[in-house]
Each structure stands twice: as C-alpha cells, then as structure tokens.
C-alpha cells in the first residue's frame, strides 16, 4: 500500500475520484491500494531564532548575524491537527512508499520535503508530476511515477530559497529595527529578500510620477476620406503653443494644394505572439482588463484546479515540450465545440496540428510548459474566468496560424514653406514642414493586428 500526499484537500478529492477511492474522512481518504492525505499550504516552516540560541531572542545588533549551522523545522500553527495526522501516516508501517502529489513545482516540492523531514519518515519517495488536473493527466501521471531522487536538485533549490529568505529577513529586519530604536523609533522595519527590492522599484516609480511636470502640446492633423495626415517639421511632430499650431493651420488653409513628395508602400509580417507564461498572462490581463497580478493568478488557479480547463499556471516558460506538442488534438477538439472558436479551428481542419520552434523547444521548458487549454471543455465559468480563458484560448489558437501580413502605405506631402498667416517670429521654427500619413488598410491583407488570414486576435 502507498501513501499519497496532495497539497490541498481539493486536489486530494480529484486524485481520489480518479483512483476510485471514496472521498470520505477528516484527515485522509482510504482505499485498498492507496491512502490519500493532504497538506494545507505549508504545514511545516523554519523555526524562530530563539530555538537555536536563547541569546537570539532579543533584538540586539551585537547578536547579529544569526547563522544557524543546521536549520530546524517547526509545525505551522494554522493546521496542527492535519500536520499530526500526516506525520502519523508518514511513520505508518503499512506503507511501502509515499507518493509526493503536491504541486509540480519548487514550492510544492518544499511543502512535501519539509513535512517528510519533520515526520522523520523513511518511506521511499515517488513523484507524481502533472501539468493539468484532468482525469487523463492524473492517470498518465500515476502510470509513470518517477523516483524521488530525480527531484533532489529541485528540493535543494527549494530549501536554498527558503533558507535565504530566513537569513535575509531575520537578520536585516532585526538590524534595521534595532538601529531605528537607537535613534528613538519604535517601528518594525520589515526587510525581505524579494519584498524590499520590489518595494524599492515601486517607490522609485512613485517618485517619478510625483515629480512629473506635465507640459501641454498641440498637434496638427488632416483627416479626409479615410486618410489621416499629421504635420511634422524635421523630427518634430508636436508644437509647443496654440499660437504656433493655429499659425500652421492658417498657413495650410491659405496655401496651394500640398505636393506629393514621396510614397512608400510595403507589406510587413508579424508572427503570432508566443504562448503565455504566468508573467505574460498577468501583464496582458492588466492591460486588457485592469486586473492586478494577484487577481489574474487567483483566476488562473481556479481555471486549473476547479475547472481543469488550463494547464499549470505558475510557469516561467513560453514554450511547449515536444511530447506535449504531439498531443494537442484534444485541446483543439474541445475548443472546436465552442462557437466562438469554431471559425478558427475549422480553418485548421484536415491539417495535423504542428507548431514550429517558436513554440516548441524542449531546452526552454523546465518545470512546466507554457499555459494552454486542456481537453476539458469549459463549463460554469464566471465572467472573469471566461475572459481569462478566452485570452489563453486565443493565444493558443493563434500559434497555429501563419504570420499576419500588414499593408502599410506612407505618403509624404510638402506644404508651401511660407504661406500667409505665419508671424515672422515663428517662421524660423517651420523649417522643412511636411505632412505624412498612412492610408487605410488594403482590401487583400488586413492592417489590424493579428487578423490576417482569419487568425484570432491574440
């Protein structure tokens, strides 16, 4: 019999359903072959400084730095009952092995390793590594469990991150707070390895915004018959005063018709954008919908865990591995059943879904591949979940289409240099005045981003 440890109760219920185990029990679900239990976030954490040395309890500069020879663990206060149950199971002689089914990533690895270490378990470890929580993905994952030894480097990286946070946070926070108290301040100055540099960037940006002095400017444009032309003189397109802008307008109205200086026509190509990683998804959602990074992550986690319609969202890769790229028929069929995406999937009918190296590169996939839809059709999504899924689905579909072709025609018109209506003191500021403009998109190729040849906007 094997013990399975999931990261959350909801994931434990998914595993139980796929493995045919009744999801009933306060701390675990028991079946004939498996017993499934779960963590509730980080059940175990690094201990406080006073546990190493009583002298480290007081916040004094002469006690710094605090550098433990070996880091100690303690149980987290938020779920002691569940920790006790998990620890007891990890020491149970019924089990031959324990399957780490925590999230397939660095933090999931750390959650399991800390619980395993805290319980002093000696069970052999096997790893369940899946990028989606669909039934098929879970079955495939259990069919190819990997030895825990293969993930020792990931576990070492996770521990290093955790211990670095402790060393920087504990020492720097105490140092700055103690120094502040010497100066008569009672505030707690929290310092963090990631927190403090991030706050510094926010402060720098806020200071730049606060110090910005707006300056008014004017532009002169001609709009007629789908043609928009903007005035420029040399590199300058903006005018510093309304008086000068009005003088340009009056001069143009009184002058003879502009002379066509030159016409440039070209077609540019724009490849489909790369697939989403978490950061790119958060930026796009912020630009489109004004969501915070945390809001986007919460929605992505819901699409992944509850609805099971996207792959693992906490990824830093924008590529797919070759084995994943070979199994994209399922997601495409699921999208084909949605009327909104049918025109795009229909355009791919009859052709094998193949992607080039812009999207498939094993060397650029570490823990997880890019975020893509799964073969599970979306049902019961709320408004924001639907909008985020739509972003991911369109970006995925766009990867199968050719480059967008954009027709650009640029016309340069020369306006008479010294027409009436321009004061003498302003004429020297109108050297080589031109009007430039671009025509409307051509009828054969679209000028809109990502719409060429029926490609979805992505």
Describe the structure in your own words.
By secondary structure, this protein is an alpha+beta fold. It is 36% helix and 15% strand. The chain has 3 domains: 2-159, Rossmann fold (3-Layer(aba) Sandwich); 221-271 and 404-454, no CATH class; 278-398, Topoisomerase I, domain 4. The protein has 14 helices and 13 strands. α3 (106-118) links the parallel β6 (97-101) and β7 (124-127). α3 (106-118) packs across α5, α8 (278-289) crosses α9 (293-305) and α9 crosses α13. The model is unreliable at 427-435 and 438-453 (pLDDT under 50).
Keywords for this entry:
alpha+beta; 3 domains; Topoisomerase I, domain 4; 13 strands; 15% strand; single chain; 458 residues; six-stranded mixed beta sheet; Rossmann fold; five-stranded antiparallel beta sheet; 36% helix; flat
CATH class categorisation of the largest domain: Alpha Beta
Total number of β-strand segments? 13
What characterizes the major β-sheet?
A: 6 strands, mixed
- Which percent bin holds the helix content? 25-40%
Topology overview:
Blueprint lengths: L1 E5 L2 H11 L8 E3 L3 E5 L5 E3 L26 E3 L4 H11 L6 E5 L4 H13 L5 E4 L7 H9 L2 E2 L4 H31 L12 H16 L10 E4 L2 E7 L8 H13 L4 E12 L7 H12 L3 H13 L16 H4 L3 H8 L5 H6 L35 H16 L5 E11 L9 H4 L5 E6 L20
Parallel strand pairs: 1-3, 1-6, 6-7
Antiparallel strand pairs: 2-3, 4-5, 7-8, 9-10, 10-13, 11-12, 12-13
Helix pairs in contact: 3-5, 8-9, 9-13
């Amino acid at each position: 019999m094997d013990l399975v440890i999931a990261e959350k109760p909801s994931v434990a219920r998914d595993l139980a359903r796929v493995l045919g185990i009744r999801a009933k029990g306060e701390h675990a679900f028991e079946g004939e072959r498996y017993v499934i239990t779960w963590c509730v976030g980080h059940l175990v954490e690094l201990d406080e400084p006073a546990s190493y040395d009583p002298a480290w309890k007081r916040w004094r500069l002469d006690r710094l730095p605090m550098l433990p020879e070996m880091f100690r663990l303690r149980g987290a206060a938020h779920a002691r009952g569940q920790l006790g149950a998990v620890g007891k199971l990890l020491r149970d002689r019924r089990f031959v092995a324990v399957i780490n089914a925590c999230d397939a990533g660095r933090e999931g690895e750390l959650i399991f390793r800390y619980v395993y270490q805290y319980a002093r378990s000696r069970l052999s470890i096997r790893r369940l590594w899946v990028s989606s929580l669909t039934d098929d993905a879970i079955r495939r994952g259990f069919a190819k469990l990997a030895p825990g030894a293969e993930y020792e480097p990931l576990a070492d990286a996770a521990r290093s991150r955790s211990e670095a946070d402790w060393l920087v946070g504990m020492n720097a926070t105490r140092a700055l707070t103690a120094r502040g108290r010497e100066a008569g301040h009672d505030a707690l100055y929290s310092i963090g390895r990631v927190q403090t540099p991030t706050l510094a960037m926010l402060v720098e940006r806020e200071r730049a915004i606060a110090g910005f002095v707006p300056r008014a400017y004017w532009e002169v444009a001609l709009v007629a018959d789908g043609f928009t032309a903007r005035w420029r003189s040399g590199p300058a397109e903006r005018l510093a005063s309304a008086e000068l802008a009005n003088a340009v307008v009056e001069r143009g109205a009184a002058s003879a018709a502009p002379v066509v200086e030159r016409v440039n026509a070209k077609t540019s190509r724009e490849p489909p954008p790369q697939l989403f990683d978490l950061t790119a998804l958060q930026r796009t959602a912020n630009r489109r919908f004004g969501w915070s990074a945390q809001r986007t992550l919460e929605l992505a986690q819901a699409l992944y865990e509850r609805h099971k319609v996207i792959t693992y969202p906490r990824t830093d890769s924008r590529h797919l591995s070759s084995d994943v790229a070979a199994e994209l028929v399922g997601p495409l069929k699921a999208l084909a059943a949605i009327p909104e995406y049918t025109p795009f999937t229909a355009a791919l009918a009859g052709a094998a879904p193949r992607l080039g190296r812009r999207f498939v590169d094993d060397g650029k996939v570490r823990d997880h591949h890019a975020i893509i839809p799964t073969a599970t059709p979306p049902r019961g999504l709320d408004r924001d979940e639907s909008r985020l899924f739509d972003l991911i689905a369109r970006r995925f579909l766009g990867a199968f289409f050719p480059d967008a072709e954009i027709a650009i025609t640029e016309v340069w018109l020369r306006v008479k240099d010294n027409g009436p209506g321009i004061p003498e003191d302003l004429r020297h500021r109108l050297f080589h005045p031109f009007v430039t403009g671009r025509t409307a998109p051509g009828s054969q190729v679209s000028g809109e981003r990502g719409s060429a040849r029926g490609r979805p906007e992505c």
